Amino acid sequence: MQRRILTKTAAILAGQIRQSLLQNVPRTTAFKIAISSYSSSSTAKTVPFTADTYSSKVQRDSRYKTLEQSDLDYFHCILPETSIITDKDDLDFFNEDWMRKYKGQSQLVLKPKTTQQVSQILKYCNDHKLAVVPQGGNTGLVGGSNPVFDEVIISLSSMNQIRSFDETSGILKVDAGVILETADQFLAEKGYIFPLDLGAKGSCHIGGNVACNAGGLRLLRYGSLHGSVLGLEAVLPDGTVYDSMHSLRKDNTGYDLKQLFIGSEGTLGIITGVSVLCPARPQASNVAFLAVKDYETVTKVFNECKKELSEILSAFEFMDLKSQILTQQHLGLDQHPIESGQYPFYVLIETSGSNKEHDDEKLETFLGGAMENGLVEDGIIAQDESQIQSLWSWRESIPESSTMNGGVYKYDVSIPLADLYGLVEACNAKLEDAGLVDFTDSSKPVVSAIGYGHIGDGNLHLNVCVREYSQAIESVLEPFVYQWIQQKRGSISAEHGLGFQKKNYIGYSKNEQEIAMIKSIKNHFDPQAIMNPYKYV
Amino acid sequence: MQRRILTKTAAILAGQIRQSLLQNVPRTTAFKIAISSYSSSSTAKTVPFTADTYSSKVQRDSRYKTLEQSDLDYFHCILPETSIITDKDDLDFFNEDWMRKYKGQSQLVLKPKTTQQVSQILKYCNDHKLAVVPQGGNTGLVGGSNPVFDEVIISLSSMNQIRSFDETSGILKVDAGVILETADQFLAEKGYIFPLDLGAKGSCHIGGNVACNAGGLRLLRYGSLHGSVLGLEAVLPDGTVYDSMHSLRKDNTGYDLKQLFIGSEGTLGIITGVSVLCPARPQASNVAFLAVKDYETVTKVFNECKKELSEILSAFEFMDLKSQILTQQHLGLDQHPIESGQYPFYVLIETSGSNKEHDDEKLETFLGGAMENGLVEDGIIAQDESQIQSLWSWRESIPESSTMNGGVYKYDVSIPLADLYGLVEACNAKLEDAGLVDFTDSSKPVVSAIGYGHIGDGNLHLNVCVREYSQAIESVLEPFVYQWIQQKRGSISAEHGLGFQKKNYIGYSKNEQEIAMIKSIKNHFDPQAIMNPYKYV
């Protein structure tokens, strides 16, 4: 598929690369696993109610009112018929998360079309103590956008208009329910790029991205949403509209309150509009895919990369072997991009710049040097846009691939770089000790813990791929995973948020004073506590 | 000093540049002003008390206690002798701002050496209702770090240690009182760069930079402090230490409360420590200095620059002719970098990248094209580090040069790009109508309004250079300037903050709901209102 770089690099370096690198490296026997031996179990079974699965941990708060006909009557007064969903089958889509791990029992989904309607809904709910769950594209990974009990779901999917775009400044203003990919395609036509990219881009909403402070694949290059979001419109629990849709790159007039909503996961109010600064779309992009012999070497490749590729480096992703085996099976492809054998680790490097010739020269020089120094075992560079997309699919398909045997426990964590992969190894050892894990034996409930993620951000995705969800697995993993992270002074949620899954574990990443201040701010904005209860903090 | 690029560019473009560009362009007669005719008045006169100058606008709040011997006794118990300043002459340095526009009447400066001491001081002041002013390098431009009446000054200058630096991640942790330039020099030795740079770097403190959300010269490249600050340590008004000195690029566990302190100007607590992500220091830098015929063309040059230089563009600064004439006089130099004549506008472009050859090629190609298209009248590229520094001095010396005739009214504002320079023209017209302005006639109180700043950020520095401060000038300028900005939907403070100067004008940039929420957060954190009173909001 992709042309090997070895020949070209060898030519550039005029024979400086050791001859041995031009030959196939023997397969790393420890990872020699026959792909054909997997079972591919179905994921179509019924999802149990969160309230049942976690009945020992969470009880319905009796302060909240139960939905009555009079409430429905009110909503029918302020919303058109098409904005109100009460049909049982239709509700499932909104009650369940995409991992099929959490399921709420809401009897009502509201799909407002305007900020004013959101305001009317929240004011009513606040006055009547009806708990609510704001929901974007429902692509969250911690059960944050699904009800736990009977909360009213407020879906932003009908607020999906691009409000404006300024071609000089690159400032885009959108409704919260605009799908990320839709916005990026719109921007592509104008020569701009959305400063965020992630696997769920075809479904996730920009409002949801901001509410969860999504990090994704471009953070290394374009920074976090705390930097690129210039303004927000949000409705507070009492129905007040906080209109702060500014379009200024610099504005030091008062506390930057919009920052509180970025990453608040729908607990302070509902984001209805976003103003975001978009960079010029790079005129040249390229992707290299490398094989690396061990984790320590992955970090060395990263450090070299930062120095040599510097301003054109736009992504540095790593993947372990098992993540690639699962992905290959899921994609149903005969060949992996690296054909010379299996290697413990793979790295995807993306460059983005203004001059293709310069960028390719930098990338090839870097790879040539890295191979010469023994940092890289094998590698390829994409030759065109379709090859770039194809290489990316080996990284972006991992989340889906990791659920193919039945389900996945997902941990999205930050750990100082040197220790980052140690968590995956520790989890596999722990599951091994408990006799729960086997990569091929389908009688064991766990397939494997796999690791991949954004090395450039110190962000590991630990996916524990399972054949079924069970309390036995969960009790081996938690709080073990969180304790391990705490010891390394990491974060138990790098980018996925706290949601329902991690609500009780924030103490592993934040101290008492921080938690007290967070609770106090929550109470300041939402004294009736109607916003997304049973979650966050 | 700098080698002309014309020959080199001409060679590259093989005769594509129009011959006329190789000749001197005639001086723009409207700006033909004899440098020798200036008066250079002294700035050594006494600064009047802010309380007197603005007696009609602000009264001392009687809720605050007046300093007594018992208070001094307490501070002597918890601090060493050298941390307490009560000598009248020594106090002046802390009471006055560097523009010599504001002067407080504090009788006490405390210079704690530890976070614990800051905590003890604030707890005492909060319990006894002693108002305080936190002070960093005292380089602020809106009177935010000086007392208005008799507030106790808490200077962070004795908390000046670099706490740690991680060479793999580039994360620097410092005491709030570390001077920006000291940190950047420390980082230079490690191959890293501080993500913020500004004219006052030799004096300003990092804690003060964060408290004011300083933008500066590198924002275009490295983004705002809301993105690069990873953690903070701050002491709350009641003495509680908020220890949030994290070192993770991604951490989505709870509201990002540190963001509230970024840009809070000492009104919520005192920042005592900062954790900041520092990028790898570019291996290659260059600077070009261009002459441009009008403001509209400046914006066109910027748009071309964004496209062609993209990832290596690290600064795009513009300056008008009068700012350069004043700077030339202030620097005492015979020659301006552009020797071929005077032009209405000048632009400084900085590139930073990993490959000097690639960067220089991009810069030269860009300039060649810009001259061919008639966007640029004349231009030079620095040939070595000392020339880079020298070219930068023509931009960085403007703030000092603007005070050389007596004083300056500074406005730091954000305005959509197309209208940005219109404010300078509108101010000069307004001052002209009032008969207050003449560039050469020293009997008039105003020299001129001049404009310069960070085009890349939509950030104009409007400096009204005066021979003396007067209410007559101020009443012509305010609220006129703020009203003009409001009409254009800009910000009355892009990066300098609100401080004392702009406290009453926030309504020109924020709506009632935003202001109400800001006031409510202030009250939430500082119910006794001891922190930096009479300012901000």
Can you offer a commentary on this structure?
With 537 residues, chain A is α+β, with helices and mostly antiparallel strands. Helices cover 32% and strands 18% of the residues of chain A. The first copy, chain A, contains 19 helices and 16 strands. In chain A, the strands form three sheets. A seven-stranded antiparallel β-sheet of chain A has the order 13-10-12-11-15-16-14, with helices on both faces. In chain A, helix 1 packs across helix 13 and helix 11 runs antiparallel to helix 13. The radius of gyration of chain A is 24 Å and the shape is globular. The N terminus of chain A is likely disordered. Chains A and B meet through helix 9, strand 8, helix 11, helix 13 and helix 19 of A and helix 9, strand 8, helix 11, helix 13 and helix 19 of B. Chains A, B: Its cofactor is FAD.
CATH topology of the domain at 6-32 and 282-399 in chain A: Alpha-Beta Plaits
Secondary structure tally, helices of chain A: 19
Using the alpha-carbon principal axes, give the shape of chain A. Answer: globular
What share of residues of chain A is helical?
25-40%
The value of Rg of chain A in angstroms is: 24 Å
Q: Tell me the strand order in the biggest sheet of chain A.
A: 13-10-12-11-15-16-14
The average pLDDT value of chain A, as a whole number, equals 90
Architecture of the domain at 6-32 and 282-399 in chain A, CATH level 2? 2-Layer Sandwich
Quaternary form = homodimer
CATH level-1 class of the domain at 6-32 and 282-399 in chain A = Alpha Beta
For the biggest sheet of chain A, the summary is: 7 strands, antiparallel
Largest interface, Cβ cutoff 8 Å: A-B, 89 and 89 residues
Pfam families (chains A, B): FAD-oxidase_C, FAD_binding_4
Domain FAD-binding PCMH-type (chains A, B): 102-281
Cofactor (chains A, B): FAD
Protein name (chains A, B): FAD-binding PCMH-type domain-containing protein
